[in-house]
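INFO batch 0412 | record 1 of 1 | parsing
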Amino acid sequence: MRFFIADDDPAIRFMLTQIIEDADLGEVCGEAEDGSQIDSNFLAWKQADILLIDLLMPNRDGIETVRQLNGYPGKIVMISQIETKELIAEAYSYGIEYYVTKPINRLEVVSVLQKVKERIHLQQFIREIQRSLSVLTTANAVQASKEQTSSKQSILSSARYLLTELGLISENGSKDLLDMMDFLYRWEKENTQDARFPSLREIFLQVAAHKLGAGPMAQKEMKAAEQRVRRAIYQALTHLASLGLTDFSHPKFESYASTFFDFTEVRKRMRELEGQMESAVPATPRINTKKFIFMLYMESKRRIG
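INFO prediction complete | emitting tokens
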């Protein structure tokens, strides 16, 4: 179990860390001295299962922070020396699991955190049962699953075709881009009510974690993948710019240049290749990685229509 502690008092953070470790409750994955330093995305990135948060902090207090953690799926335990019923009731209304009073009592903290862990394990057990039951579906559900797998393979095939068209299928980053198409396909199926497109960091992080699991190696892989993908996209830009110089009406140039890139950046790369930049050091075109990945996914889907 992974814990995150938000408290402006370093002594309290240290004490809670020691209690968690000594009682073998899990590991502390991070700390913050104010609520303004955390949000749902940050806690998701830290993979925090349980948040321990102080009520009173200088910039953003615990209640306001909890109120803004709408998308956080973990459990929240609030800690404070204030025992006003109104404040406690407000904290519970925003979804905290327990309220622990200061000064910190080791036995109370251990008891509360064990109860929270048990609740998490119970919910995980229920989800496992639900997943097991979902396996016992009708033949129609099995067929739907096969069709979904076929759609996934179709999207990947379509993406490979586009990467070939863009001249980067042989680049190291092409494998990363295909892994991202796989992630986005799964993400869209699992988040049917969420209209947003995942952040670039979330895409890279989830793909790396899918390969190596959460941890330092995934962080290193994420940074390496970012570099590989940027180099691959730059190769695609160069490929299209070369086509445009040869034939401005080339079908690939007309179809893809403005779809995957800002056309001003394509023109800039064309002038570089043509040797017409007046500057001794040419201005490197800006690569909009998120736009490229988004358009690659949308175009892949469109082609299998």
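INFO post-check: The first helix runs from residue 10 to 22.
INFO record closed
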